[in-house]
Amino acid sequence: MAAHRMTAEPRLVQVAAGVHAWIGAGGDSNAGIVETPHGLVAIDAQQTITLGTLFRRSAEASLGRPVCRLINTHFHLDHIAGNPAFADVPIIAHQRTLALLHGMLGEGTGWSVADAATKLKLFFGGNFSELVAPDDPGATWFEARVSGPGYEVMQLLAPSETFADMLALQTGRDMLVARYLGPAHCDGDLVLHVPRAGVVFLGDLLFVGRFPWFGDCDLAGWIARLDSVMAMDVGVVIPGHGPPAGLREVAAFRGLLSDVLEAVAAAVRQGWSEEAVVAGVRLPHHAGLPRYEAWLPANLRATYRALRR
Ligand SMILES: [Zn+2]
Predict the structure, then answer these.
(1) Is there a smaller number of Cβ atoms within 10 Å at the N or the C end of the chain?
(2) What are the tens digits of pLDDT across the range 156-184?
(3) 126 CA to middle of ligand 1, Å?
(4) What separation in Å is there between the alpha carbon of 186 and the centre of ligand 1?
(5) How many A from CA of 85 to the centre of ligand 1?
(6) How far, in Å, is the centroid of ligand 1 from the Cα of 172?
(7) CA–CA separation, 290 vs 27, rounded Å?
């Protein structure tokens, strides 16, 4: 499977009996569907209400069943902004996902967000303004990302049900097991496993064909979570961004994360300052990936700070 293959339109792809991936256009966020006797369980809600509605309608039309539940893999806006398209069904997430939303938006079950600073926190983490100052030359990329159609005033909807460690939904012939393995890409990241089908949905624990965002991650924790994933008996791995993959892509991605961690750790051992790390650490093996230029500086800054804590 070509790692860099991108689609112009989002599309539903069957990856096993009763299990489908909704692959975002051009590397945009993915979603998924697991069929159950109670209806379709949707996984993630896309980056706008329009795209969330398109995902839901397309899945219901092609599978001939209504959606009965939605699960959010994590709180980042490109995975939850479409939640209002699922307002009539339970929306499930890890309890930390809801706590993070409450921390940024205040208590409540829904919010209207118009200011860019809040959208940036929701997209890239609560520490975003510490990583990318408004006068940073790199800030314009991020400001553009939260502007444009669908991003003017964002109506957000909170998860309605949460859990702490593990939740199993019965699908009839199989199960959909949602597990929280610990802090990783942000916090509250869920790993969604359909064991008999041999499929796992990783949310943003895996990016395929795109340099990852790790400004608000726990990098050592993320690498440890990927080690747990690689011990799973699965044949198909659905990333948060990019085409369906397998454990080989998980191993390669783990390598990318550890390359960054080791490069920054080596610079710290040599006494480099934070600014020297941001200006001077480069990952030539990964430089061809989309988002490398835009995201590397903030990722390096976050990694340096985590290592110096
Ligand atoms: Zn994310």
Answers:
(1) C
(2) 999 999 999 999 999 998 999 999 999 99
(3) 12
(4) 7
(5) 19
(6) 30
(7) 9
Separation of CA 43 and ligand 1 centre (Å): 14
Q: Is residue 52 part of a domain?
A: yes
Gap from CA of 210 to ligand 1 centroid (Å): 12
Contact partners, residue 108, CB within 8 Å, separation at least 6: 102, 158
Residue 257 belongs to a domain: yes
What amino acid is encoded at 71 in this protein?
I
CA distance 267 to 160: 44
Tell whether 2 is covered by a domain.
no
Quote the ligand 1 centre to 217 CA distance (angstroms): 9
Contact between 223 and 257 (Cβ < 8 Å): yes
Counting the structural domains of the chain, the total is 1
**Domain interval for residue 71:** 11-308
Ligand 1 centroid–CA 151 distance in Å is 17
* pTM of the entire predicted model: 0.95
Q: What is the CATH number of the domain that holds 22?
A: 3.60.15.10
In 3D, which of 213, 227, 226, 228 has the Cα closest to residue 260? Answer: 213
Distance 226 CA to ligand 1 centre (A): 15
Q: Kindly list the averaged pLDDT for each block of 10 residues, start to end, along the chain of length 309.
A: 62 97 96 97 97 98 98 97 98 98 96 95 94 92 90 95 97 95 96 98 97 94 98 98 97 97 97 97 96 96 94
For 217: left if phi > 0, alpha if psi spans -120 to 50, otherwise beta; the answer is beta
Residue 3 located in a structural domain = no
Nearest to 6 by CA among 28, 21, 22, 31: 28
